[in-house]
Every structure is written in C-alpha cells, then in structure tokens.
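Subject: complex prediction, re-run

Hi both,

The earlier run crashed halfway through, so I resubmitted it with identical inputs.
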Amino acid sequence: MQITLQKIIPVFFNATDVSRSQVWNQQVAFDEAANTHIIAPSGSGKTSLIHFLYGLRNDFTGEIKYDGVSIKNFDKEKKSTLRQQTISIVFQDLRLFPDQTVYENIAIKRLLSPFHAADQITAMASRLGIQNKLQQLCGTCSYGEQQRIAIIRALQQPFQYLLLDEPFSNLDEANRQKAMELIQEEATARKASIILADLKKIDYFKAERILHL
Amino acid sequence: MKLSYQHIKPFLHTRQHVASRWMGYIGLGLGVLLLLISVQLYININVLLKDKNPRKDGYDYISVTKLISNENMAEAHSFSEAEIEEIKSQSFIQDATPLLANKFLVRASGSSVLPFTTDLFLESIDNRFLDTIPENFTWKEGQAIVPIIMSADYLELYNTVFAPSKDLPQFSEKSISSVLIQLECYSPNGNAKIFKANVVGLSNRINSVLVPVNFLEWANKSLGSSSNINPSRIFIKTTDANNPELLNFLQQKNYNINKDKTKFGRVKQLLQAIVSGLSGFGVLIILLAMLLFSFYLQLMIARSKDNLQLLLTLGYSPGWLSKTVAKRWVPVYTGIVLAALILAAIFQWSFQQFILNSRSDLSPYLHWMVIIIAVFLLLLSIFINYRLVKKLLLKL
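This time it finished cleanly. Structure:
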C-alpha cells in the first residue's frame, strides 16, 4: 500500500510557516520498501503529521491518500480495519490505559489482530527490561517504562507502516538501542516500513530517507 | 482466543449505578408481566363472555323499541320507513323486520276447560324471523281457526303463577295445542268477528302472541281503527348481540333493547376497557424502564468515554464494539422476558384452576398471541439497546 501526501498543510499553519518544509505543501510518497526519518523541531507540526497519517484528525488542506483513496473519505469502520491491518503507531503521549495492568494494555491490542503468539508479549517485555512490570498497573509505571509498553503494544499487530512519534524521548541510550533493534526486526519480519518523527536525528535508525519538516 | 465482551469488560465502568441498572431490569420485568397478563386477560374475557345461548343459525334476534322516558311519553314511539331502512343498512345488522300489532280490540276466552276471559294483543312477524314454524301456522280468509304461536315464557308464567292462584288446570307444551280459545275481535263501532284459536307452537325467541301475517293484515284492514300502521317494535338479526358497534348505535339512537341479550356485551365492554387500561399502564412502565436503562447506558458510556475512545483509536471498530456491548444484555433481557412469561403462565394456570375451578372452556395455558408478544418485546428491547449503544459510541 502506498501513502501519498499531496500538498498538505495543517489549517492552523500559514504559508510562510511551511516554505522550507520538505513535507508540508509538497508531494511526498511513502512506500513499504523504505524507512523514513522525519526530523522536526518543536512546533513544526510533527505530532499533527503523525495524527493526520493515522486518520485521527482531518484539520489539514491537501490530500493524504492510501492507495489513491483520500483518508478524509474513510468512515470509522474503514479506519478501524486500516488500524488493525495496515498501520500501527506509538503516540508521543503514549495513550495507555492507566487502570489496567501492563500485560492487559499490550494484550488488548494483540487480541484485536494478533501477529504473534501471546508468549511473545513476555519475550518482548524481557528484551526491553520490563518483564517484571507486566502485572503492575500501567499508571504506576515510570514514563520510560510506559514508552516501552507503548512500543511493545504497537508491535502486536500486522502492519505495513509503523508510525513512531518521539518514541524514545524518555529512554536511556542502552534502552533506545534495544527498542530500535526490536522495532526494526519486527518491521523486517512484516516487510513494513517505519516512519519515525523526532526532534533530532537518531543515528541507529536505518532510514533510506530523511525529511525535514 | 476469540475476542469477546469479557476482554473489553475491564475497560467499561459497569460497576457504577448498579441500582439504576437493577431498577431498569425490575421495571422492564414488571412492565412486560403486566402487559402479558393484560393481553391474556383480554383473551380470557373474550372466551368467557362469548354468548353461549344456543343459536340455531348462529344469529341473535333482538327486539328493538324506542325508549319511553318521562320526557317523551307523549310522542309517538313507532318506527318510520326511513328508520327501519337505516337500521337495516347497518353493517352489523344482518336483517330487520317490523312486528305488526293489532289495531282493534281483541278478547280471548277459554272454553269450559279454561274458564277465564282476558283482553289480548296480537302481533305478527315475517316467518323468516320465527324459531319454530309449525306446518299449520297459516291462515286464509274465511278460515275459522287462527293458529297462534305464543312465547314459551307466557306458558311458564301461566302454569307457575296464574293457574295455581285461580285453580285452573296446567298445560304441557303439547297439551296446550288441544285447547281451543275463543278470539273475539271488535271494531271501534262495535262490529265483532269471532274466531277459534289454538296454540300451534311456542317461541323462545319472540316475547309475544303471534298470528300469521295475512290474518293480522286482513283484520287490521277490516276492523282496524287507526290509519297509522307504523310498527313500534322492530326485530333485528345480528351475528353478535354483544358487538360494541351495535350497542353504540342503539344507544346513540335512543333505542331500547332487551338488556339480558346484551349484558355480556356491556360487561365485556367495561372489562375490556379496564384491561386495555392495564396494558397501557404496562406499556408505560416498559417505556419508563427502557428510559431508565438508557440513562444507565449513557452514564456507563460517558464514564468509560476515555477508554472507549482509546479502544477506537487502537483499531476497535464502532460496529463490533456496539454489537459486543449490546450483546452482553441479550441474556439479561431474555431472562427478564422469560421470567415474565413464566409468571404470566403461572397466573393463567392459577386463574383457570382456582378462580374458575378448572372451567373447561378456558385453557390453563397461555394463548399463542401472548407468547408472540413476549418474543416481540424481547427483540424490540435488544434492537433498541443495540441502536442506543451504537449511537452513543459513534458520538465519541
């Protein structure tokens, strides 16, 4: 599936804000073969772009097309199918259920459209060092731990694109690398591409293309 | 493992407002029970108050007169041609015919067997309205003997009240026919014609002393005083004397009928009105219970809004979520309606067994209509619930 951006600009931006952008008001195409690294300073609309791509918001001009069909025309059911099968995400604000355990937070995503067997949840948690947190309430975990929970959750489903919005902001260097390694392995297993947006370049993310927002 | 309600249950705040949920359940149960019992009672009333008088041809024959009240005593109470036609034209009246009355003086006296004299009246009616037509119930001019059909009630009154008090002989239905009565008919100017008469038959239908139509027409013509030949009694033929439409028509026209014939109809009308009121009340309770339940659902969804929104963001479809959440109440609703149905069945059984002492004309089981209504209510509750949940979820 190809995603194309056709001259999109958030409605709350003006033309001068986007004049030097390689994404806003440009023709950009994403395809499954190549990872994209989007580098964006604060306030340049990084989270908005990720939300637009995920179909959470429509407050932009121009078109985002999934295989030629504008995402603005997707109804709620179609968006659900897209989110179950085609696109996965790690939100900058994580969006976890604070009153559920870590395991439940991950399992609720896996149950919807499982890519792995259930035991992979524990295996991934072990790789990222949170295996002893699985039965703890999510709301009581540190932000760094929650970031790793959100990453593991995003890897439970099939996808062709993985959207990452500052996914490692609260992780130390060692954990960042472990997480990146896991993410890239999982993307490769699905022949999927990663669209990672961050404030600055992440060296160990193997991206075929770098776009400045 | 297949995704089910159990998986998303922890994300819904179902444990709050338990009281309003249970009140909704109880209200729904009571409403459904009341409605089912009302429908069953309505059916019972129809079965029990069906006119069980033997009707040879499936029709009721009723005498209709104009109501004589203190206000209209002085007016004529006969029916005009137009009024008779109007009565005939009603859809619930299959046939109508006037009862002709004598317009001259009649005096009857018995022979030595029956030594008494009385003034009498005579009426005649078209033969198609008679329940018994003896072969010899005919008369032609010059015939000395006039056949009479008398109300069976009159013979009973004579035998039980009149005869013992006067020390007169009593007669059986057969022996009365052998008694010859002298019938003296006087014109206003004193002319008299004397006939012999005998009772050839007894009628259970018409409360009168009937003679053949052609005799009365001839006698009225040759002896009658008045030119007004409009009848004051009409006999109607109807499939159901208790038909509310018929009763309304008669009431509206101020016509008077034999109340005995229609007493079931009036009791039925009243009972049906009460039971309809009850079922209306049942429907109201169901609506209130549904409303209460919808408030509970709205509250639950409002309280679980963040979680539900996140589930939708993660890829849960609103269609699947509403179906799954709504399905959770299918067993609850089924249980409620089934419980109401069982209670209604117990009610009907007890009603037939204990109140009616196992009367054979009423079934101790629920009528199929009641079961259909229960199934309909169940499907309706499930459908409304599903639509409500879906609407609330799509709003998120």
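The interface with chain A takes residues 1, 3, 7-8, 10-11, 307, 310-320, 394 of chain B (CB under 8 Å).

- K.
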